[in-house]
């Protein structure tokens, strides 16, 4: 894991970055690896990949963070990327794998109400995706919206959202 994280930092080759992110994401399926990746500063290194201009690299970084977000301590670090993930969802092509990867991460990050406030500005986008997206996109958006709606503090934002 340490070598993968160093490789991710050391290369600018998008194909190598994608493969390293896929491997880190798969490794995160095991809870012990989630802690190791966090302790090796892997979350911030993967998080920096969200700024990459290559959509496939962003998508793989979102997928890796999604798997890593199954851990409360990891969520505490990943939450700082929520605004950027929301921007990626909004700017990604409709129904793209990049958009779906962002929505999956937001679904995990919205299971508890701890980070709902960071998603408020994206509610109009979520409602737009619900109206315009394919069934796969709609299902993923609904998961986020259901999680947000479980928080009474979000009711006014959901009901007042301009679509």
TrEMBL record:
Coiled coil: none annotated. It is a single-pass membrane protein. It is found in: Mitochondrion outer membrane. It comes from the Eukaryota. It comes from Aramus guarauna (Limpkin). This is ARM10 protein. The keyword Plastid does not apply. Residues 1-163 form the Armadillo repeat-containing domain. Keywords: Membrane, Mitochondrion, Mitochondrion outer membrane, Transmembrane, Transmembrane helix. The keyword Mitochondrion applies. Its main location: mitochondrion. The lineage of its organism: Eukaryota, Metazoa, Chordata, Craniata, Vertebrata. One of its GO terms (cellular component) is mitochondrial outer membrane.
């Amino acid at each position: 894991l340490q070598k993968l994280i160093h490789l991710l930092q050391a290369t600018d080759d998008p194909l190598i970055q994608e493969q390293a992110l896929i491997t880190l994401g798969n490794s995160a399926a095991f809870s012990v690896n989630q802690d190791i990746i966090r302790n090796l500063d892997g979350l911030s290194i993967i998080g920096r990949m969200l700024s990459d201009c290559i959509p496939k690299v962003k998508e793989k970084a979102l997928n890796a963070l999604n798997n890593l977000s199954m851990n409360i301590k990891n969520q505490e670090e990943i939450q700082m990327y929520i605004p950027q993930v929301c921007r990626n969802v909004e700017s990604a092509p409709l129904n793209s794998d990049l958009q779906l990867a962002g929505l999956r991460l937001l679904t995990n990050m919205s299971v508890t109400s701890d980070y709902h406030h960071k998603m408020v500005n994206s509610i109009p986008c979520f409602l737009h995706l619900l109206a315009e997206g394919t069934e796969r996109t709609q299902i993923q958006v609904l998961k986020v919206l259901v999680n947000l709606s479980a928080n009474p503090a979000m009711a006014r934002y959901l009901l007042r959202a301009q679509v």
